[in-house]
Fold this sequence. Notes:
This protein has a domain at 33-67. Helix content is 40%, strand content 0%. The chain contains 2 helices and no strands. The longest helix is centred in the C-terminal third of the chain and has 19 residues, at 49-67.
Amino acid sequence: MAQEGMSRGKCPYLVEKKIVFCGVGREMYIPSPFQLYEYCRDDSHSKCPFYLVNDKVVRIYSNRERHH
């Protein structure tokens, strides 16, 4: 039962927008607005900590595959 004075329906503070996520790892990661602005939207992505770690892991894995 709704409390008196409370409206029914979705929360007025809920903002429904598209979700932007990063596929750099095995799990979905949702970048912060800062990360989107600083790294994701242009060629600054090479400075992103997640990109740097993933790029290094991919290069190591690729090198291992070539040597086996």
